[in-house]
Every structure is written in structure tokens, then in C-alpha cells.
Design a protein that fits this description.
Blueprint lengths: L2 H8 L1 H5 L22 E4 L12 H19 L5 E7 L8 H4 L20 H14 L6 E7 L12 H9 L1
Parallel strand pairs: 1-2, 2-3
Helix pairs in contact: 3-5
């Protein structure tokens, strides 16, 4: 059993909906498996600022995988949910965003020379690819900020806050 099979066996959502949900581990930078799916959740990305030292890889792989997904599904009726990030607001002053943050709030990066922002930029470009594609499929963008769940590790903000509180 490889690591992906072990992950799927442990993944409670898959077990709950066995036979109705499929999880694929694919290199989306080179190909995208196209089939008759009702919905695809695009969660693939080199995540967060932790891997920003790999700036070029973060930009290339995150953007290429999203472009390939759009290209391969653009003539289907599959619904695509693109998981973006609250990081798209970058280093903007919170006064511009407001709470709750509106969908038409400016996004941006203050210093393009900081590798830390490559993830945010890849998500901005991913959103733009969906918004400006001439695709027939239906799509949704979800900007998550600090999601929390099993196997996320202890170096993310929510576990760090919990440790500090304890």
C-alpha cells in the first residue's frame, strides 16, 4: 500500500461516501484526467508560505495545473471548485479589505522580490484564469483562510495558537 492509498483509506469523507467520491493524485502540470464528473475540487497546489523558497516551482506548478484543468474541462458541464486563499489579499493594508471582505476587494503583492508571496500570486493568477476563461463549465472560487483539519501538521496558525493557549 503506497502513501496515497493509505491517505485514502484514512480519509473519513471517502469512507462515508464510498463509491460516490473519488480522490485522484495526479501531476496536473502535465495532464488532467477528464471524465464525466459532476464536480471537481481543485485543491492541488504547492501550499502556503512554508515552501516559498521554491518560488519558481510554486508559481509554475500552481498556475500550470490550474490552466491545464481549465483547458481540459472547458467544454464539459463539470462544476469546478477552485480552492484559492485569503493570501490573495497579500500585504494590503486591512483598511482596504474591510470585514467581511468583499469579492471585489483589491488583491495584490507589495513586494514582488519577496519569495513569500509566490503562493499568493499563483492563487491570484488562478482566479484570473477562471474569471477570464471562455469556458462552458460552471466554476466557483473559494478563498480559504487558515483551514483546520486532520493531518495538517503542527506548524500552521491554528495549532500554533492552540499550543500557545495551552
Amino acid at each position: 500500500m503506497d502513501i496515497n492509498e493509505k491517505f485514502i483509506d484514512d480519509f473519513s469523507l471517502v469512507n462515508r461516501y464510498k463509491g460516490r467520491i473519488r480522490i485522484y493524485f495526479e501531476d496536473l502540470t502535465s495532464s488532467v484526467p477528464v471524465s464525466n464528473y459532476y464536480a471537481v475540487f481543485h485543491l492541488a497546489a504547492i501550499r502556503g508560505t512554508k515552501f516559498s523558497k521554491f518560488g519558481y516551482d510554486t508559481l509554475y506548478k500552481n498556475i500550470q495545473s490550474t490552466a491545464n484543468l481549465i483547458e481540459n474541462f472547458h467544454k464539459t458541464d463539470t462544476k469546478i471548485i477552485f480552492v484559492s486563499s485569503g493570501e490573495v489579499f497579500g500585504s494590503l493594508d486591512p483598511i482596504y479589505a474591510g470585514l467581511p471582505t468583499r469579492e471585489d476587494c483589491p488583491v495584490g503583492i507589495a513586494n514582488i522580490f519577496e519569495a513569500r508571496w509566490t503562493y499568493a500570486l499563483s492563487k491570484i493568477v488562478g482566479e484570473m484564469l477562471f474569471i477570464h476563461s471562455n469556458a462552458y463549465f460552471r466554476w466557483t472560487i473559494a478563498r480559504l483562510q487558515n483551514p483546520y483539519g486532520e493531518r495538517m501538521g503542527e506548524d500552521n496558525v491554528v495549532p500554533i495558537f492552540i499550543k500557545r493557549a495551552l
